[in-house]
C-alpha cells in the first residue's frame, strides 16, 4: 500500500468540493493507494509537457484528480483536484 501525501493546494481544492464529490475522490485515492488499476471510465493517463511526471484521472466528466506515484518510495502524492478549467486554465 502506498503512503498518501496531500499537498497544500490539493487540501484547499478538496475542501471546495461537495461532500458527494469528496467521497468520490476519497474512493479513487484509496484505490490508487492500494495500487488497484482504475476502470477505463476514469480515463487515467500520464500528462505531458510541464506535468510529464504526473497522472490524471477523470472521476466525473469535469472532476479531475492530478496525482503522482513514486514507485520506489511507495508514495502517492495528491497534487490537485477540481474542474479542467480550474486546474489547467
TrEMBL record:
<protein>
    <submittedName>
        <fullName>Type II toxin-antitoxin system YafQ family toxin</fullName>
    </submittedName>
</protein>
<dbReference type="GO" id="GO:0004521">
    <property type="term" value="F:RNA endonuclease activity"/>
</dbReference>
<dbReference type="InterPro" id="IPR035093">
    <property type="entry name" value="RelE/ParE_toxin_dom_sf"/>
</dbReference>
<feature type="coiled-coil region">
    <location>
        <begin position="21"/>
        <end position="48"/>
    </location>
</feature>
<feature type="active site" description="Proton donor">
    <location>
        <position position="84"/>
    </location>
</feature>
<keyword id="KW-1277">Toxin-antitoxin system</keyword>
<dbReference type="Pfam" id="PF15738">
    <property type="entry name" value="YafQ_toxin"/>
</dbReference>
<dbReference type="InterPro" id="IPR007712">
    <property type="entry name" value="RelE/ParE_toxin"/>
</dbReference>
<dbReference type="GO" id="GO:0006415">
    <property type="term" value="P:translational termination"/>
</dbReference>
<keyword id="KW-0175">Coiled coil</keyword>
<dbReference type="GO" id="GO:0006402">
    <property type="term" value="P:mRNA catabolic process"/>
</dbReference>
<dbReference type="InterPro" id="IPR004386">
    <property type="entry name" value="Toxin_YafQ-like"/>
</dbReference>
Amino acid at each position: 500500500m502506498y503512503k498518501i501525501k496531500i499537498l497544500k493546494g490539493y487540501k484547499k481544492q478538496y475542501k471546495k468540493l461537495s461532500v458527494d464529490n469528496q467521497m468520490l475522490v476519497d474512493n479513487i485515492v484509496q484505490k490508487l493507494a492500494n495500487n488497484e488499476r482504475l476502470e477505463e471510465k476514469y480515463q487515467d493517463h500520464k500528462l505531458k509537457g510541464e506535468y510529464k511526471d504526473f497522472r490524471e484521472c477523470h472521476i466525473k466528466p469535469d472532476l479531475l484528480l492530478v496525482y503522482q506515484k513514486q514507485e520506489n518510495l511507495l508514495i502517492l502524492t495528491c497534487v490537485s483536484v477540481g474542474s479542467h478549467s480550474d486546474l489547467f486554465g
